[in-house]
Fold this sequence. Notes:
By secondary structure, the chain is an alpha/beta fold.
Amino acid sequence: MFVKICGLSTTQDVEAAVRAGADAVGFVLTGSPRRVSPEQARRLVAAVPEGVLSVAVFRDEPLDQVRRDARAAGVGAVQLHGEHPASAFAELRDLGLTLVRATSAAFAAGASCGDFGEDLLLLDSPVPGSGESWDWSALGEAPPSGRWMLAGGLAPANVAEAVALARPWGVDVSSGVEVRRGVKSPELIEEFLRRVRAAEQG
Ligand SMILES: O=C(O)c1ccccc1NCC(=O)[C@H](O)[C@H](O)COP(=O)(O)O
């Protein structure tokens, strides 16, 4: 199962996430207590080994800013919250970036990743990065097929239940591995990954 640890802001946290086995690490380049600048993100990306996806997170920024900041940060993927025209997605793919399309699960309940092509879908709570959970059963009996990540209020204590209920392709967490908002805990990161791997074993 694909695991993304998001909202990282120190090299130590990036190293902790990589050491714990994360498949992706996220850097928030939009309004947030976790925000880093594109230049800070580039220094963090330098600690991300080949095979681990570095993701820049945006919300409602204009396409030219997303393109500029993603290039400055040197990330391999952009995660877009908010509304964007299909042409924006196509332009970013043409730059060789992987797209993570974030949406409120309420909207996407039952949506198929087939609607999202090669992009990754992030089904999140209505307030991204809030640590708020939501009713995973809202996905109904037919969760999306394809490469989709479950997010929103996940933590070591609930991720096994969430995985069993929603059966996602991947999971994403930020608040649930912090000691306080914006301050990651290497121990919680490690525990989260351990619980995910145990849940995968069934
Ligand atoms: O993390 C943020 O502060 C943030 C701010 C604005 C837009 C997106 C943001 N995070 C996006 C993520 O991918 C989070 O990991 C995801 O929303 C889950 O967050 P959490 O419920 O805190 O685990």
